[in-house]
Amino acid sequence: MTKTIAFQGDLGAYSHEACLNARPGYDVLPCRTFEAVIRAVREGKADEAMLPVENTTYGRVADIHRLLPASGLHIVDETFVRVRIALLAVPGVTLDQVKHVRAHLVLLPQCRAFLEKHGITSEAATDSAGAAAEIAESGDKSVAVLASAFAGQIYGLDVLAEGIEDEGHNTTRFLIMSPKADPARRADAMITSFVFRVRNIPAALYKAMGGFATNGVNMTKLESYMVGGAFTATQFYADIDGHPDDPAVRRAMEELDYFTDEIKILGVYPSSEIRQQIPG
């Protein structure tokens, strides 16, 4: 039986592209929201979820870190998509005719230089691939779309320009999540992702981080965010190199536990080979 992976957006979205790259042969299930993606897996409508967590140009994807701890799912893989943005229009339209574009709010500032150069105004859409579908259906020649060339293929739109993003390193990181964890899984390079909340004592975060430094554990990400609407209830999301069973990681996590009120491991998974190819 063919497995299914859920993603947020319409067919042709960059998340759809991530699904095809990381899980070839899977059926895909488009969902309107991130919450709907998680719900689809929890209800058995999909086997896995594809969720974007950060972009090298735009930064952290809003709400994702809040959703992950309560999702009931486990990170089992990561993947990356190089975001190449294309200008799409219905067949017959030329670049000089384009005066206005629609795209997801995240894409618009990533193409600011191109839009200013050609005097093109813009407006935000809920989803870029969805905007491509709407224009293809309406046949509207007055508006173009910023989306992937892949979306253009799906909806029969012409690519008027491609690779128009301002930054050449524009890449999105995705996490693949499953109802079941596989703690015994091993690879040459592993990542452990977790969230924690420090105790309300002086220098708690500094002391909590000391265990990773003294044990030589590389922390590749540390981000804070509020929970429950309280300024004092700060939670942290972290990625570290290694597996919880590694002696150095185990010692670092034991020290972290001493200075925290809560620790929750979100996933233990292989580091993607693509990670090493990303400039930075």
Automatic annotation (TrEMBL):
Site (Essential for prephenate dehydratase activity): 172
Entry GO MF terms: prephenate dehydratase activity
Catalytic activity: prephenate + H(+) = 3-phenylpyruvate + CO2 + H2O
Gene3D superfamilies linked: 3.30.70.260, Periplasmic binding protein-like II
Pathway assignment: Amino-acid biosynthesis; L-phenylalanine biosynthesis; phenylpyruvate from prephenate: step 1/1
One of the Pfam families matching this protein, by short name: PDT
GO cellular component, as recorded: cytoplasm
Gene Ontology process terms (BP): L-phenylalanine biosynthetic process
Domain Prephenate dehydratase: 4-179
Record's keyword annotation contains Ribosomal protein: no
Record-annotated ACT domain positions: 193-270
Protein name per UniProt: prephenate dehydratase
Organism field: Harenicola maris
